């Protein structure tokens, strides 16, 4: 098993992390998806189905739905752990099927469970904050998407939408910095959560501009998937997940073609 420090000391890849890297990660993610599409399609379809369930449950309470869908961005990385394993297997010259992915979920890795719970708490906190902000600040009731667009996004008075975006960014930024490397590392190694999070923050601090670009690209792609009646998520979610694996490999200098045996702690 390779520790986080050992990962960082391995021979760097031929291409250093720079502004070109997010585009490269997406290209590699697309290649992984095309090579083994079934696990990705299953993940994407399940997440899209969850989004449709949210729409059905709170379709007439968009003040709540806005926070729920933006909170989805916070929790989504932990739901893609199976796809990190698929990309890891592809780098080792293997084709991981749904059985292997299901085995990862059944392993009950306590580190992933704890990290997922923390992300869930962060997402819930943002849903409640978003709902409270919109209902208390907006002069008009927000029940439908058109209400949110008219009275929040396109409101003549500055304030509500700008504060809503700012609060969302303030929450999303530390969550992104804590998870962008940490979650793939928890799948790939047996390091504790604290060490994985520290490595994630280190990677973001070492490459701030490429990581900001990567975060914006992820948000835009997820937004694109949402405005296509969530159908775009079926493909975009796995491509982003596979790309995130390659981001982790570059940021930790882990050879993408190498293989680290997983051994989760009890």
UniProtKB/TrEMBL annotation:
InterPro entries membership: DUF2189 (IPR018692)
Entry annotated with the keyword Transmembrane helix: yes
Keywords: Membrane, Transmembrane, Transmembrane helix
Segments traversing the membrane: 38-55, 62-84, 115-139, 160-187, 211-237
Protein name per Swiss-Prot or TrEMBL: Membrane protein
Organism: Hydrogenophaga electricum
Endoplasmic reticulum in keyword set: no
Pfam families, per the entry: DUF2189 (PF09955)
